[in-house]
């Protein structure tokens, strides 16, 4: 029975990794869509979000079965509980990637690229790395990597503050750019939220390993 439990818990880890990868792909496609709006890309973003939702339901079902299969020891309970919490944050990350693509439609209406595009790209990469490292920390039970994710949120936040200042300057110099700037700021805000959800992921990894989230 123990061997079976371990195998099924490993399957949960593998699916979490797949869900995390889908989130990364969603973020990447959403940022690409800002620069190069394309119907196929828009469809791919929506399909990826649906895959993320499907993975959430699949992992949730796997975790519930693990709870019912036998009386897990405390470390098992924490690992399964952490996975169930993490899929909620991953699902929200997928939602935010789709939100970015939705805002991109308005950014593309006048045919001009988003303000602070370079910073948005860098910010999206930093947020994606946080997602990847948090999921990897869960799979490897790596507390140092989980702590690194939490620390990386400062980088994402610093990008957000810089983008916010740049857009404020842009609007003050050209009031007609206000709507475009605010849409760009909304993209940055969604990326900042992705960073926050990644911190949540890391905190659940910490809970799994130590029994404490903070």
From TrEMBL:
Coiled-coil ranges from the UniProt annotation: 38-65
Gene Ontology biological process terms from the UniProt entry: intracellular phosphate ion homeostasis; negative regulation of phosphate metabolic process; phosphate ion transport
Keyword Cytoplasm included in the entry's annotation: yes
Main localization, broad class: cytoplasm
Domain named PhoU: residues: 16-103, 120-205
Gene Ontology, cellular component aspect: cytoplasm
This protein's UniProt keywords: Coiled coil, Cytoplasm, Phosphate transport, Transport
InterPro entries: PhoU, PhoU-like_sf, PhoU_dom
Transmembrane segments: none
The keyword RNA-binding is assigned to this record: no
Places the protein is found: Cytoplasm
Subunit architecture: Homodimer.
Function: Plays a role in the regulation of phosphate uptake.
Family indicated by similarity: Belongs to the PhoU family.
Protein name, as recorded: Phosphate-specific transport system accessory protein PhoU
Native source species: Baileyella intestinalis
